[in-house]
Amino acid sequence: MHLLQNVPGIMNLRLLPKCFLTGPDVIFYYFFAATTLTGLHFATTTIMTAVLKWLGYIQGSHLPLQDLVKFVLFANLSIVGMNVSLMWNSVGFYQIAKLCMIPVSCLLEVLFDKIRYSRDTKLSIVVVLIGVAVCTVTDVSVNTRGLIAAMIAVWSTSLQQYYVHFLQRKYSLGSFNLLGHTAPAQAASLLIVGPFLDYWMTNKRVDKFDYNVTAVFFIILSCTIAVGTNLSQFICIGRFTAVSFQVLGHMKTILVLVLGFIFFGKEGLNLHVVLGMILAIVGMIWYGSSSSKPGGKERRSYSMSGDKSQKHGVLSDSGELDEKV
């Protein structure tokens, strides 16, 4: 096992050709404590935001405790759920669960933000889902506990990503500001719970791991990369939406597969995998084009006062027909 396999957002390494995971020229440092490692990721992110705030690049802001607790709950459930889902399910079912996040995110936007999708936007999402499924979903096996873990992972991840966009919009928070509020809380909670949860999942203690120089180097490297990953997620979702982030995020899956085939051999590469990649990329391009067009993805907002004012020939701000997302 590779150290980065259990890093949230980099778990797709299990999709790589077998030679990558077992090749004789690859040195492996398997750090089993995935939840604790994620806590270290957010601790590193906390340090980064603290330094930027000290330098004056991040201005003071406010996030109510109630919203912070909700976000941390969803985010931590997402991290634990994804790791447990990966551990208890086959790679194929794990990928199916990840694909389910897109329709769930769409449902959240429709219910809470009153978003309307055009036919082309809906079809482009379907094309992306089919393409990614064709090139990644192979063996599919599921059990009761794996199904429960997958459901928790799908819903908590979708809610966490929806909340990133919601909180930035509601409180006018930048990506750095929101990270400055959420990263310390996530780091503290995960570092407290992580060692116990990792012991429950692996029957191994974090303090018994062989922290040699090379392993520590890769842990630090993982934490450094995670800072950019966390920030890019907040920037992308804040600028666009959770659905757009999910659709574009599957480009990472395609890149992992392509780089695996380029650098570690073409084992597993066949026609249907190539066609799946092409279909997914076409769907992503189509989604970007259709969702950016007028009517492709819009928020409708009506109010009683707006309706009344329109009757008198006055169009209020809350009575605008369409607001482009």
From TrEMBL:
Every Sugar phosphate transporter domain range: 28-287
Chain spans, region Disordered: 291-325
Alphabetical UniProt keywords: Membrane, Transmembrane, Transmembrane helix
Cellular compartment(s): Membrane
Major location (coarse): membrane
Membrane-protein topology: Multi-pass membrane protein
Transmembrane segments: 27-56, 68-86, 123-140, 146-164, 176-197, 209-228, 240-263, 269-289
Top-level taxon: Eukaryota
Gene Ontology cellular component terms for the protein in this record: membrane
Full protein name: UDP-rhamnose/UDP-galactose transporter 6
Species assigned in the record: Cocos nucifera (Coconut palm)
Organism taxonomic ancestry: Eukaryota, Viridiplantae, Streptophyta, Embryophyta, Tracheophyta
